[in-house]
Amino acid sequence: MKSGPNFGIGRGCAAALFATTVLTAPSAFAAQEPQAVPFSYDAASVRLDAASSIRRAADAEVTAAQEQAAATATLNRPTVSIDAQLLRYQKTFDISLTDALGQAESIAGQLLPGLTGDLPGVPGDVLETINNRLEQALPEFFASLPGSIRLKSADTVFRPVATAVMPIYTGGAIPALRDAAAANVDMARAKRESASNLEEVNLVRTYFGQALTHQALVIARDTRDGFDLHLRNAEAMEREGFLSAGQRLQVQVARDAAQRQVDRAELEHDTAVQSLTRLLDVATPVTPTTPLFVNATPPAPVDVFVETGMNQHPRIAQAEAGRELAEAGVDLARSRMRPSVFAFGAYNLNREHALPTEPDWAVGVGARYTLMSSLDRGRMLSAARARAQAADQVGRQARDEIRIMIIRAYNLVELSRRQFLSLESSLAAAQENLRVQELSFREGEAPASAVIDARNLLGTARLQRAAAAYEYELALAALLTASGRSEEFSAYVQRADRVIAP
């Protein structure tokens, strides 16, 4: 047996041996994967919409904001309440009689002559005597009376009182509160839309990420299986003396490296499967049925996406809601510097137990104006205006950043699309190169390393093409999300004209 290949006289024999090995080689290894549920991208999107905790939380926030806004719709209505008290009380009254006694003494002195003069049948001297004696006794009588009296009252009473207060003028506080509540609803909706967009991008990343790892695994296994066949051929050619041991060892090293790549691809694919399963919250693994894809034609001009993004991006809507909320804060701070007018009423539901100073009922109109407050209202108004200015600048910054984001995403879509299309010719060239190198090897005109390099180049081209498609999906999802057109992603999937089958 010769130690190296005989390129001069053994080409025909080596070619026959190589062909025989190819015909008798086993088919490519196909690993048995666990049973999985097939899911299209649209089905996965529907499932995510029902299973996402983030979306449910965002929906709850919107509901809470809407309920708060509805609560402010009745701020102009009266507030009616019932105040019920059960109390034990004692009240002391001190009443002065000095003035009353003086008036009574004076009146009695004036009335005495008339009283005694009208008695019929009584002699005049007797009447005069009686009158004189009464006049003498009258001061002593009034002097003997107390100058004041003290009255005490103690009781246990039940006091139910209904009161009503209705605002008439609040200085603009009520409209400000309503505007703030409406702005909170808009902000909650914008946050929900932003969370939904992030979930959609995450679904694209995870769903097509699993498809990419599956392609990487298929490519790794195909490369490994190709090296298995190449190694068997090299071993047979070595036994026949047409190949050196060094070249056979080169094939062995390449085959072992391919096996390590398979092991890595299997673990990465398993991680991707678990990620998609957890994201969709399903019990069994999911098999993506929507392939990696690319649209050969470029998307619409970038200005179209920029225009819709300026009107529909949730971050801009959130910034606008923040500006409205800040302006409502200015109005509320201003209302604290104005008077308020209100109507009120009270009705005693248990008049029998009413205190002496309490009315049976009362209605009226009141006004309140704070002359001096422990809180500097002028500075609070200045602070609210500063917040409004800051919110306006945040909106401007958001618009600028969204514009740049859309342009960057658009360029990434174009880059990945062009790379994918250029890799199609590279893939065809790599396939042809492998065919030529294998033929040259069979003819003894090319070393084993040339076949190794050609097979690795083919695997790399296939993987780069799949990666370019995956990058296209991610960039497209980012572009559509940034421009407020995320619902159009499925349309791009439907009209894709370049696909990499699962």
TrEMBL record:
Entry keyword Lipid metabolism:
no
Q: Name one Pfam family in it.
A: OEP
Q: Is Transmembrane tagged as a keyword?
A: yes
Q: Where is coiled-coil annotated?
A: 248-275
Q: Where in the cell is it found?
A: Cell outer membrane
List keywords of the entry alphabetically: Cell outer membrane, Coiled coil, Membrane, Signal, Transmembrane, Transmembrane beta strand, Transport
Signal peptide region: 1-30
Coarsely, its chief localization is membrane
Report the superkingdom from the record.
Bacteria
Q: Which family does it belong to?
A: Belongs to the outer membrane factor (OMF) (TC 1.B.17) family.
Q: Write down what this protein is called.
A: Outer membrane protein TolC
Give the originating organism: Brevundimonas faecalis
